[in-house]
Amino acid sequence: MMIAAIPWILLLSPLVGCVLILFFGRASKLLSSGIGIFCAGLSLLCAWFLWLKGGVVEVPSFPWVDYTSFGKQFRISIGFLLDDLSLPMLVVVTTVAFLVFIYSVGYMAQEEGYWRYFAGLCLFLFSMLGIVVAENFVMMFLFWELVGVSSYILIGHYFRRDSAADAAKQAFTVNRVGDFGFLLGILLIWLYSGTFSFNDLKGKAQVITDAAPWLLTTGLVLVFLGTVGKSAQFPLHVWLPNSMEGPTPVSSLLHAATMVAAGVYMLARIFPALSLSPIALEVVSWVGGITCFLAALMGTQQNDIKRILAYSTISQLGYMVIGISVATASTVAVFHLFTHAFFKCLLFLCAGSVIVGMHHEQDIWKMGSLKNKMPLTFIMMGIGTFALAGVPPFSGYFSKDLILEWAWIKGTPVFWFGAITIALTTFYIFRLFFVVFLGPPRSDEAKHAQESPRVMLLPMLILSILSLTVGWPFIGHFFIQPVHPEHVPLFLRFILIGFLAVGALVAYLLYAKGPLKDPIQVAVFENRFYIDNFYDWLVKEIQGRFAGICAFVDRWVVDGFVKIASGCVWLFGFCLRMLQVGNIQAYAFYFGAGILLIFFLLLSK
Amino acid sequence: MIPFLFSLILVPFLSALGTATVRNITLARTISLVGGFTTLALALRLCAPPPACLDTRGLAYSVFLPWLPQIGIEFSLGIDSLNRLFALLSPFVTLLALLALNPSSSRWLAANLLWLESALLGNFCAQNFGTWFLFYELSLAPAFFLIRSPGDPNASRAALRFFLYTQAGGIAILAGYLAIGLSCGTFSFPELAHTQISETLNQKFAIPWLSNLIFWLVLGGLMIKIPAIPLHGWLPETYSRAPAVAIMILTGVMSKMGLYGILRLLSPVFPRELSQWAGILLWLAVAGAVFAAFVAITQSDLRRAFGYLSINHLAYCLMGIFSFHLLPPGTSDKTADLLYSGVLLLAFNHGISAATLFAILNALEERTAGKHSITDFGGLRSLAPVLSGLGFISIFASLGLPGLNGFPGEFLLFVGVFHVSWPAATLASLALLLGAFFLLNVIQRVFWGPIGKNLQNFPEIRPHELLWAVPAAAAIVVLGIWPQAILNLLRWP
Predict the structure, then answer these.
(1) Residue B284 lies in a domain
(2) Who is most buried in A34, A38, B167, B399, counting CB within 10 A?
(3) What ipTM did this prediction achieve?
(4) How far apart are CA A546 and CA A555, in angstroms?
(5) What confidence score (pLDDT) does residue B332 get?
(6) In A, which residues are within 8 Å of B448 by CB distance?
C-alpha cells in the first residue's frame, strides 16, 4: 500500500509544486525556488528508492477514458510501467533535473520572472516523468504534448523578445508536425492490434506483422515521426538551435539532457515491435545517420556558444537513433542517452557559467583566455568536452563507440556517417573549448569575467564526476547493462580513435593559437544548408499563398453566390416595382391585358 | 407541481421578462443573474442518474400536451442520452455570458440572453418536430436582437443577414419535415425513428428521388445553423459586429443546435440517405475544416478568426457524425461508440472553450474601447498576467492540448474517423496543425512581445470578472483531466 503510493508521489510532486508556485511563488524568490527544489528532491528520492528497491511494484491505475459501461472494452488509463527501462531513466531524469534546479537558483538570481521560471520547470518535470512512467501510448502522448507546452513556455521565458516568441512558436509547431505522425501511428497500430499498452504490444506486434508486414512498418515509421520531432532529427531539427533563446538551464535540462531524449526513450519502449520490421529499422537508421552527420557539419561553423552545443545535441541524438536501429537491444542507445544526459547537461551548465561570467555575451569570438578568470569552469568544461568527444576513459567513449561497434557489425553504410562524425564532433567541441578558454581575451567582458557562485558550481561538479565515471563498466552497469557485440575487430577501435585524433589535431592547429576570428568560413555550414530558409519560404509562400486563396474564395465566391441570389431577388422586386406606377389607368390597362391573356390561353387550347 | 422541463424553460423566460421590464439597472442585473443561476441549478439535476420511471419511449422527465393531434403535432419534451449534455451546456454558457456582461450594459442584452437560453433549452428538449420548430423560431428573435446592437448600422445589416440565412434554413427544414410528418402521420421523434421514412415518402408521392431531396433540404438548413462551409456566409459579419457576449452564446450553444439537429432530425430518420451520401459529406466536412483553418490564418480581426476556428472545430464534429454513418448499418461496434461519444464530447467542450475565448475577447474590448484586431494588442502578459494566463489556458484548450478539455473529444473522434477513413483523418489533422499555428500566433501577437501602443494602463482582471473566469478555467481543466465525468453522462440505463 505504502509502496504503491510512491510512484504517484514521484509523478505528482512536481505538479503540486508547479501549482503552489503559481499561487504563492510571486511572494518571494526563496519560496519559489524552495518549493521547486523540494518537489524535485522528493521525486529524486522516490526514484532512487524505487530503483534501489528493485522488483515489481503494483501501482493502481486511474481510468482516463473508460467505456466498459457501454458493454465494450475501451479503456485508456493513466498508469505506471516500472521496469528495467523506466526505473533507471527516472533516476537519471530526476538527478539531472534536481541539479539543474539548484543551479537555476544562481543562474536566474538576477533575472525577471523567477517564479514563473520555476513553475515552468516543475511543469516540465511532471510531464517528463509522465512520459517515462507511461504504460500506454495514449498516456505517453498526453505527457508528450505537455512536455511540448512546458518547453514552449520555457523557451518563451523572455517573451518580450520577438526572437524568443518566434522560437517558442516554431518549437511547438514543428513538434506538432512530428506529433501528428506519432498520433496517426498510434492509431494505426491500435487499429490492427487493438491495444495501446506497451506490455501487450510485444505480443501483438508479432500478430500484425504476420498478417501484414507493411502495416506494422507504416505504423512504426509514423510513430518514429514523433521521435523526429521531439528529438530534433533531420528534417525537423530546425527548432532545437532556435530553442536556445530560453534560459541556459532550460536548454540544459530540456533541450539537451532529458526532453529531447524522450524521442529515443520512446523508440526504446517500442523496440520489441520495432525490431520486427527491418524496413522501419532501416528508415530509423538512415535518419539517425544523416542527422548525426549534417548537424555536426552545421555545428562546426556556429559562433554562438549555446548553438554549437545545440547542434552537438542534435548530432548526438542521431547517434542514439542509430543505436536503436543497429543493436539487438535498446539498452545500447539508452546507455548513450544516459551518458549524454550527464555530459551534455554539464556542458550547458558550464556554458551558462561562462555566459553569466561574460555578462550574457554568447558569441565565442568575444571570449578568450577564460581559463585564468574561471578556472573551475574551465576544468569542468574540459571534462565535458572530453566526454563529448569520446576520449577514453570519459563516459562518451564507452557509449558512442559501442553504438559504432554495433553499426560495424551490422555492416551498414551508416557506420561511416557515424565514424566521420566523431572527427567532426571532436573538431567543433575543441574549437569551442580553445576559443573560449585559451587565446587572448577578445572583448572587455572577457577581460573582466568572473567565476560563478558556488550554487552553480556545485551541480557542475557533481555532473563532472558523473560525466567522467558513468561510462566505466562497474558504475555504468549500475544504471544499465548494455549488450556488447561479439567479435569486434581490434582495428575498429583504432579507426575510431584515429578519427578522434584527426578532429582534435585540426582543431588544435587552427584554434589553439588564439586567432581573433575564424580562419575558415564555410557559408553552407554556417547557413545550416539553407534548410531554415527553405522552411521560411514554405510557410510564407506556400502556406501563406494558399491561405490567401482560401480567404479570397471565402470572400468572393461563397459570398458571391449569396450576393447573386440576393441580387436576383432584388432584380425581381425591381421589375415588379416598375409595374407599380400608382396610376389608376395603368392598373386598369394591366387588368384588361391580363383578362385578354387569360381568354387567349383558355381559347387557344 | 410544474413539470421539471417546464420549469427549466420557464425560469429563464420569466427572468428575461423580469429583466426587461424592471427599470432599476441593479435590480435587473440581479434578476438576470438569479435567473441564470437558478436555471443552471435546475439543469444540474440532469447530472444525477435519470429517474427510474422512464416513459414508454425511454424518455425521462417527459412532458406531453396535445397540440394539433390531427396531424400528429404535439407539445412534447423529454430528456434522453442525446440531449442531456446540451441541456446542461446551455445554462452553463449562458451563465458565463451573463457574468461576463458588463454590469453597466443595458438590461436588454441580459434579457435577450435569457430569452435565447429558454428557447435553446426548449429546442434541445423537444421530442416532437412541432415543438422543436417552435423553439427554433423562438430563438431567432432574441438572437436577432442580440446581434443588432442599436446605433450601429453594420450590426443591423449583420443581424438581418443572420436572420435571413437562419430563416431560410428554418423554412427548408420545415418544408422537408412537413413532407415527412404528413406522409408518416407523426412528427414525434421517437416514433419517426422506427419508421421506414424513405420508402414511405417515395411511395406516397411516387417520386423516387423525393427522399433524397428532403434529406438535402433538412441537412442544408441545419448546416446553415452550425454553420458549415459553404453555408457560413452569415458568420463573418455577425461575429465581427455582434457584442462579444452574444457570440459566446452563438458559438457556444447555438452552433450546437445545428449539430444536435443533425443527430436528432436526420440520423434516426434518414439512415439510408446518410450512409449513401456520407462519403461525400465526410470529405466536404474535411475540406471545410481545412479551408476554415486556412481562412482563420489570414484574418487580422480576432473575432472573425475565432469564428473561422469555430467553423473548423464544428467541422470535426461533422466529420465524426458522417463517419458514423459510413459504418455498415446496424453495427454497434467500438468505433460507433467512439465516434458518438467523441462528437458529443467535443461539441460540449467546444461550447465551453469557445465561449471562454470570446469572454476574454470581451474583456479585452472593454479595456480598449472595442478594439479587436490582432495588431491592437501586444505584451499583455506583463500587464495583466492573470487575464493572460486565462487566455493561455483557453487558447491551448482550443488547440487540443492534452490535459485540457479540447483534447479528449478530439482524440476519440479522430480515433473513430481514422478507423473509418484514414485519408480523411490524416488530411483533417493538417487542419489541426494550422489551427495550432494560428493560435500560437495569437498568443505571440496579443499576449507576448513588446507592449502595444496605448496599452500602458491596461487593467488586470477585475474581481467581478473572476466570477466567470474561475468557473470557465475550472471546467476547462477538470474536464480535460477527467473526461469520464462527461462520458458518464452519455450513459443511459
Answers:
(1) yes
(2) B399
(3) 0.86
(4) 14
(5) 56
(6) 156, 159-160, 165
